[in-house]
Amino acid sequence: MSDHSTPATRISGNQRAALLERLSSRDLAVLRFLRAQGYASSAHVRRMFFTDHATLSAATRATVRVLDRLLTLRLVTRLERKIGGYTRGSAAYIWHLDAAGERLTRAEHAPRRRYTEPALPFLDHRLQVTDTVVTLHELTRDGDTQLSSIAVETAAWRGFLSPHGTSTILKPDLYARLSTETYDDHWYIEIDRGTESLPVLLQKCRAYAAYRATGRAQAEHGVFPRVLWIVPTKRRVERFTAAIRAEQGLPDRLFTVITPDQLEATIRDDTAPEVPTAPERRNP
């Protein structure tokens, strides 16, 4: 259970207006970020929204003040477990929306999202997804490349009919479009934490190939996005890449497999990773 949970009560129009008067644009951005990501560490919030401070400790203190104020307003709450990097205080927590924050950020007619204590493998995966989102924002914050679109998990999912006529859902962890004045790069991003077997990963690769054959992504984006797998170790890169190449009928040039430390080079295309790349690289 979270250590500051509240009943899932409705927010009246007057309560909503009163809350909004107490929130800054940055407060609302933090709440929307937690809505999209589900879970984020204090460091993730700092890296996203507190980049204008002279020192890391000043940015951390400002982050803690804002999160603690949102906690007092019962808009966010935190998990009992902490994470490494800091030894005390709110700088070490993992955060998610509390009931009032969930209601405040919920779209009209959308179902209520219920939070329960997550299992460690699920939480580890979600935090790595959050970290990838934050890193993409950081890599495109300054410079010519913009993160013009990003969709996380369910917002990126697409339904389609398989070659056998069964209803299937493609479930990328992320979809991202990065743009310059001359081209767009489209990516489906999968975060692997080493908990699934290679046959399970290959099955998902086959789902991407089947979705590509429908032409629906090409109609939506103008091109089929590259599929970027981010895996935890170089050894897993090698094994997974070899398995993709050996899989009969699987277009191996559709997939790129990297470790997290290769993300910047892959996105910036400074160095080509020694893995298959897709022909649909850049699209004027």
Q: What would you note in describing this structure?
A:
With 284 residues, this protein is of the alpha+beta class. The chain has two domains: 106 residues, Arc Repressor Mutant, subunit A, CATH 1.10.10.10; 147 residues, Restriction Endonuclease, CATH 3.40.91. Helices cover 41% and strands 18% of the residues. The strands form three sheets. Strands 4-7-8-9-10 form a five-stranded mixed β-sheet. A hairpin with a 5-residue loop joins strand 5 and strand 6. Helix 7 packs across helix 9. It starts with 12 loop residues before the first helix and ends in a 16-residue tail after the last helix. The N terminus and C terminus are likely disordered.
Q: Order of strands side by side in the largest beta sheet? A: 4-7-8-9-10
- N-to-C series of helices and strands: HHEHHEEHHEEEEEHHEHEH
Tell me the strand percentage band.
15-25%
**In CATH terms, what is the fold-level topology of the largest domain?**
Restriction Endonuclease
Q: What oligomeric state do the depicted chains represent?
A: single chain
CATH class of the largest domain, named Alpha Beta
Q: Label the overall shape.
A: globular
User: What distance lies between the first and last C-alpha atoms, to the nearest angstrom?
Assistant: 49 Å
State mean pLDDT (0 to 100 scale). Answer: 86
Count of DSSP H/I helices: 10
Please count the beta strands (DSSP E, at least 2 residues each). 10
How large, in whole angstroms, is the Cα Rg?
A: 20 Å
